[in-house]
Design goal:
- The complex is a heterodimer of chains A (119) and B (421).
- Chain A contains 2 helices and 6 strands.
- With 119 residues, chain A is an alpha+beta fold.
- In chain A, a hairpin with a 7-residue loop joins strand 3 and strand 4.
- Chain A is flat.
- Chain B is 67% helix and 2% strand.
- A two-stranded parallel sheet of chain B has the order 1-2. A two-stranded antiparallel ribbon of chain B has the order 3-4.
- In chain B, helix 1 packs antiparallel against helix 2.
- Chain B is elongated, with a radius of gyration of 25 Å.
- The chains are: A alpha+beta (119), B mainly alpha (421).
- Chains A and B meet through helix 2 of A and loops of B.
């Protein structure tokens, strides 16, 4: 099964660039631990994974019903969340994924199954 | 389940027994084999319907669960063939690979793990909390959706949609039908215990709706917890929950009289079920001191045991109870526990001592009707009648339940009566 793993910060948590070097190093170690845990686990593969530009550099496209697409500055996000990165992973089931995600830094993490549109 | 009126009583008994004792286990086996919840439910329901027809004619088989499993298995295959012909595909449950393989003819040979996996799946934290216990009642105890809707005081379509959503999530989000590893099992059992306790408290003291008690719901959650206790034996958290539920449930017939709420102090203890209290006390006695949820439930059970021990309300050891609530508050930090503690402290040391503990609680329990109700009672006992009247007024506006509202109005009226005499 494929999942999109979305990593989001809390509304008042600092952006990556605002973290101290030590804090960044700590988070990097957690990301590395996650990759290692995935590598060691049968049936698990990280298909893609990227850090994302912060909310400041995001752009939102909005098309109201029957209207034209509107382009605006900023992310389309709930007040409390800023999406900082993602992984696309292949895992046998949700419990395995939850277990692996315990290695990650303490973001708010959204797990979305990728749907097989044939079903 | 409908049955013909002319059903032979022996067959009817056999069917009832087969349903009560075997539904959950058989469903768990079928879900494990076919990896589809609703397909398994449909196949099994039809097997029971078939049994109602055939057992009258052919007699009750020697091994009813095996008979039912065989028929249900065949029906499931028929349904699958039909789907294949129609080109329909459904997502399959992720099932422990160890369980796939030869279907076993005699379900009694299976280890209890089947139903435990199913309970833990129903109570998976990734499922919406209100759906968890409903799903467990449906799949593990075989309670009809109609009945579950009635127990939870919602319409059939609402409950049906809730259950469907949960089953859909299980399949599409890949929740596995698998026993968690030993490092996660305790946590997942805690989740199942919380779900069962939520269901029990909804039945024990529902906040809204016309019925003060939903005794049946409480009874069903106890039944589920007993199953859990068999499947995961010697777990303090489960024994503690069961003890607490049994002790509280034993008081059910004394809590309402003539449609009115009767508080603990005024309950006719002759209506407490003594045998059940004895069982509750015995269960509680077996729970060791521990930590976390198990300890929380043990302390709550201890408090219930203190009430059970008192032959009359005036024999209640309120000092002990107040100390227990203090420990519970330390453990949980819960404002509701603080409220209950205030009641106990007032009994032990007088109303002003209790009132002191209520300071600042309203901010933490802004919608609670119990808080102003307790406050009103304590103010009344402390001689602050007009403040008490105000507090009762607030409690009445917040009460979500007609019986509780009536009780509060009665208390308010009492206040005015004393005042004017």
């Amino acid at each position: 099964m494929k999942y999109l793993v979305l990593l989001a910060g809390y509304g008042d948590s600092p952006a990556w660039s605002e973290l101290s070097e030590a804090e960044q190093e700590h988070d990097l170690q957690r990301f590395h631990a996650f990759s290692e845990a995935c590598r060691e686990r049968d049936g698990v593969e990280i298909l893609a994974g990227e850090a994302l530009g912060e909310g400041d550099v995001a752009t939102t496209l909005c098309t109201p019903r029957g209207g034209e697409m509107v382009v605006t500055d900023g992310p389309f996000a709930e007040a409390a969340e800023q999406i900082g990165g993602f992984y696309l992973v292949e895992v046998p089931d949700l419990d395995v994924l939850i277990e692996l995600c315990r290695e990650l830094p303490p973001y708010v993490i959204d797990l979305r199954p990728v749907l097989d549109l044939a079903e | 389940m409908t049955r013909a009126d002319r059903l032979d009583p022996g067959v009817e008994r056999a069917l009832d027994a087969a349903w009560r004792e075997h539904w959950g286990r058989l469903l768990a086996v079928l879900i494990g084999r076919f990896r589809r919840v609703e397909l398994a439910e449909e196949a099994l329901a039809e097997a029971y319907a078939r049994a109602a027809e055939r057992w009258c004619v052919d007699g009750v088989p020697d091994n009813p669960p095996a008979w039912l499993l065989t028929v249900a298995g065949r029906r499931a295959l028929d349904l699958l063939r039909g789907e294949a012909v129609a080109g329909r595909r459904f997502p399959l449950l992720v099932v422990d690979p160890v369980e796939q393989g030869e279907p076993e003819p005699d379900p009694d040979d299976r280890v209890p793990d089947d139903r435990l996996r199913l309970i833990l799946l129903c109570c998976h934290p990734a499922l919406a909390q209100p759906a968890q216990i409903a799903l467990a009642l449906r799949l593990v105890l075989g309670v009809d959706t109609d009945e579950i809707a009635r127990l939870f005081l919602v319409s059939h379509p609402t409950m049906s949609a809730r259950l469907t959503r949960a089953k859909r999530k299980i399949a599409r989000a890949g929740l596995p039908l698998r026993l968690p590893g030993p490092d996660r099992l305790a946590e997942r059992l805690d989740a199942a215990v919380r779900a069962a306790y939520l269901g029990f408290t909804a039945g024990y003291a529902p906040g809204s709706g016309p019925d003060l008690l939903r005794v049946d719901l409480a009874g069903e959650t106890i039944r589920l917890t007993r199953v859990l206790a068999v499947l995961a034996p010697d777990r303090p958290v489960i024994t503690a929950l069961l003890a607490l539920m049994v002790l509280q449930h034993a008081r059910r017939d004394a809590r309402v009289r003539d449609g009115r709420l009767v508080v603990l102090a005024d309950q006719d203890r002759a209506h407490w079920h003594r045998t059940e209290l004895a069982e509750g006390l015995s269960l509680w006695g077996a729970v060791p001191r521990s930590t976390g949820l198990a300890e929380e439930l043990r302390l709550q059970g201890w408090i219930a045991a203190e009430h059970a021990r008192a032959a009359r309300a005036q024999d209640t050891d309120w000092t002990s109870i107040a100390a227990l609530y203090a420990r519970l508050e330390e453990l949980t930090g819960s404002p509701v526990v603080r409220l209950n503690r205030a009641v106990a402290v007032a009994e032990a040391r007088g109303p002003r001592a209790g009132l002191a503990l209520l300071d600042g609680l309203d901010g933490l329990l802004p919608h609670s009707h119990r808080l102003p109700a307790v406050e009103a009672d304590l103010l009344h006992r402390a001689g602050e009648v007009s403040a008490a009247r105000q507090a009762y007024g607030l409690a009445i506006t917040r009460a979500g339940n007609e019986i509780e509202r009536q009780h509060l109005r009665d208390r308010l009226a009492e206040l005015d009566l004393r005042r004017s005499s």
